[in-house]
């Protein structure tokens, strides 16, 4: 057999091949635009030269403590400069960044710390109380570093708990070398971050990202968001959520400015948009509602175009119209933790602007087409793995394939194999494929409730309800909510002769769950069941929808 001339003497070498990593985005921005503002936090202004140096200092300090490939550094931080530095400094050592959801309860935090085998933990003092409880439960004993955020220039001081660590973040950072010689990953498949799902049954699963996917998401986010040179990005999306949809790494591609925002409040958002000329932000429908429903005294005028990325249920036409009038252009996205955040975008065609209102709404209700960094998006029969007809009616499971699909679930080969069965990632979401290739979700096969952009397991809430001595049966479904998108609605069947109130049930759940997971409404009734005793949730969903 004749040798292929295009594969002979044309091997990879350091000159023509380097593993992809999002760390290169920051390094390039610091080299090309060292004096451009990279981070704004209240009165603080940090240029790219300083941002890069501090990230390298963090990496140097971590490496001096033995942190390297195979180690996990966990952080419980708000949208602050330290969180941005962690996204770069931790992987510069070869270690994996684990960002904790700041709304979690102590038991789940402890589980994650143990499952991730955390070596070092950086915790904001706002969350020190719950973290102290978690550390008392956890089996691991990480080095704990306190982050004392000055919250520069704000008029609303945030609560600060006690220092629970043995070192202060700034002191820890100062011991590092700002010219630390960090290295690219040995392989772009090396892990860069760990994000936990909310867990539909049992404990949450740890989703592992690699350097290649995070790097590609940087380019894809720029395209999907329409970012030009030097965009100004307002941090309304939590950076702990899918690594902030990978935007901590994305802005380095175009040398953008991160505007940190500790708390999502209408006045603070409008002030930042007007003062810093924000061009982009991301968030759940609640962020839109917060902006639109703000008192007139908190609203600020601005003349720049602002792109708003949202990735939940499609906003109704009335909300889109209000957002447009307020100066925001809404970009509808869809994705999962397992796909590095958004992997589908509703690419809008200018011809659709001329459609009648009802047809326009139908187009906007669709999740869309694959991201530029995603190789495959399909709706398939999960049993046969055959694509469903592209008729907009036949329901199948939405599946993904490509470089922005997770490596798998940490220490859970069975779950990973199940998720990747047939060579596609199974999302668990049910949808249809339209003739033009746009997908549209129709239901959630695992009954996940999306509230304020966060996933809530109905099973977890039901388990809490069943722990009340008066409860005979319980079912939890999503109830539409103008502010949060969805909230948990509980239907409870009491034991004969027992009584309970709605407030009592909600308070009971609050002793077992994080507050955002607790039901907002409790309905007492006999639950509809099949002949085999299975609760008919589809009936309850309709009841909850009607009540809303």
Automatic annotation (TrEMBL):
<dbReference type="InterPro" id="IPR045851">
    <property type="entry name" value="AMP-bd_C_sf"/>
</dbReference>
<dbReference type="Pfam" id="PF13193">
    <property type="entry name" value="AMP-binding_C"/>
</dbReference>
<comment type="similarity">
    <text>Belongs to the ATP-dependent AMP-binding enzyme family.</text>
</comment>
<keyword id="KW-0276">Fatty acid metabolism</keyword>
<keyword id="KW-0443">Lipid metabolism</keyword>
<dbReference type="InterPro" id="IPR020845">
    <property type="entry name" value="AMP-binding_CS"/>
</dbReference>
<dbReference type="InterPro" id="IPR000873">
    <property type="entry name" value="AMP-dep_synth/lig_dom"/>
</dbReference>
<keyword id="KW-0436">Ligase</keyword>
<dbReference type="Pfam" id="PF00501">
    <property type="entry name" value="AMP-binding"/>
</dbReference>
<feature type="domain" description="AMP-binding enzyme C-terminal">
    <location>
        <begin position="460"/>
        <end position="534"/>
    </location>
</feature>
<dbReference type="InterPro" id="IPR042099">
    <property type="entry name" value="ANL_N_sf"/>
</dbReference>
<feature type="domain" description="AMP-dependent synthetase/ligase">
    <location>
        <begin position="27"/>
        <end position="410"/>
    </location>
</feature>
<protein>
    <submittedName>
        <fullName>Acyl-CoA synthetase</fullName>
    </submittedName>
</protein>
<keyword id="KW-0479">Metal-binding</keyword>
<dbReference type="InterPro" id="IPR025110">
    <property type="entry name" value="AMP-bd_C"/>
</dbReference>
């Amino acid at each position: 057999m004749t040798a292929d001339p295009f594969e002979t003497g044309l091997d990879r070498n350091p000159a023509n091949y380097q593993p992809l990593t999002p760390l290169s985005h920051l390094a390039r921005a610091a080299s090309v635009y060292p004096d451009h503002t990279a981070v704004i936090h209240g009165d603080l202004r940090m240029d790219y030269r300083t941002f890069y140096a501090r990230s390298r200092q963090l990496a140097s300090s971590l490496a001096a403590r033995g942190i390297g490939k195979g180690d996990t550094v966990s952080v419980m931080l708000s949208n602050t400069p330290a969180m941005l530095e962690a996204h770069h400094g931790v992987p510069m050592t070869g270690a994996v960044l684990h960002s904790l959801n700041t709304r979690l309860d102590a038991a789940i935090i402890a589980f994650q710390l143990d499952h991730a085998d955390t070596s070092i933990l950086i915790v904001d003092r706002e969350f020190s109380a719950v973290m102290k409880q978690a550390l008392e439960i956890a089996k691991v004993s990480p080095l704990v570093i306190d982050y004392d955020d000055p919250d520069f220039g704000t008029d609303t001081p945030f609560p600060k708990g006690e220092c629970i660590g043995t070192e202060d973040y700034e002191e820890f950072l100062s011991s590092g070398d700002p010219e630390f010689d960090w290295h690219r990953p040995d392989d772009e498949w090396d892990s860069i971050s760990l994000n936990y799902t909310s867990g539909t049954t049992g404990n949450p699963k740890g989703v592992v990202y690699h350097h290649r996917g995070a790097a590609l998401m940087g380019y894809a986010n720029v395209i999907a968001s329409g970012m030009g040179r030097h965009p100004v990005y307002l941090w309304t999306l939590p950076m702990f959520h899918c690594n902030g949809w990978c935007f901590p790494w994305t802005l380095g591609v175009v040398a953008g400015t991160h505007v940190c925002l500790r708390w999502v409040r209408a006045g603070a958002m409008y002030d930042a948009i007007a003062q810093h000329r924000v061009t982009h932000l991301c968030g759940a429908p609640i962020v839109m509602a917060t902006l639109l429903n703000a008192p007139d005294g908190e609203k600020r005028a601005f003349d720049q175009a602002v792109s708003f990325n949202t990735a939940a249920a499609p906003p109704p036409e009335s909300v889109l119209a209000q957002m447009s009038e307020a100066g925001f252009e809404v970009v509808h996205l869809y994705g999962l933790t397992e796909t590095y955040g958004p992997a589908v975008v509703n690419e809008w065609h200018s011809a659709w602007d001329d459609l009648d209102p009802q047809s326009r709404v139908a187009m906007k209700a669709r999740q869309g087409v694959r991201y530029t960094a995603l190789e495959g998006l399909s709706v398939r029969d999960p049993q046969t793995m055959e694509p469903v007809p592209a008729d907009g009616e036949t329901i199948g499971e939405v599946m993904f394939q490509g470089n922005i699909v997770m490596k798998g679930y940490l220490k859970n080969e069975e779950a990973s194999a199940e998720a990747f069965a047939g060579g596609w990632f199974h999302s668990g979401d049910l949808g249809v494929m339209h003739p033009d290739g746009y997908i549209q979700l129709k239901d959630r096969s695992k009954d996940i409730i999306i509230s304020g952009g966060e996933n809530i397991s109905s099973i977890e809430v039901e388990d809490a309800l069943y722990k009340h001595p008066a409860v005979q049966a319980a079912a939890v479904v999503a109830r539409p909510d103008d502010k949060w998108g969805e909230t948990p609605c509980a239907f409870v069947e009491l034991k004969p002769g027992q009584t309970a109130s709605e407030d009592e049930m909600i308070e009971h759940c609050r002793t077992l769950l994080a507050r955002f997971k607790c039901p907002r409404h409790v309905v007492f009734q006999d639950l509809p069941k099949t002949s085999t005793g299975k609760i008919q949730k589809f009936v309850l969903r309709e009841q909850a929808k009607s009540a809303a």
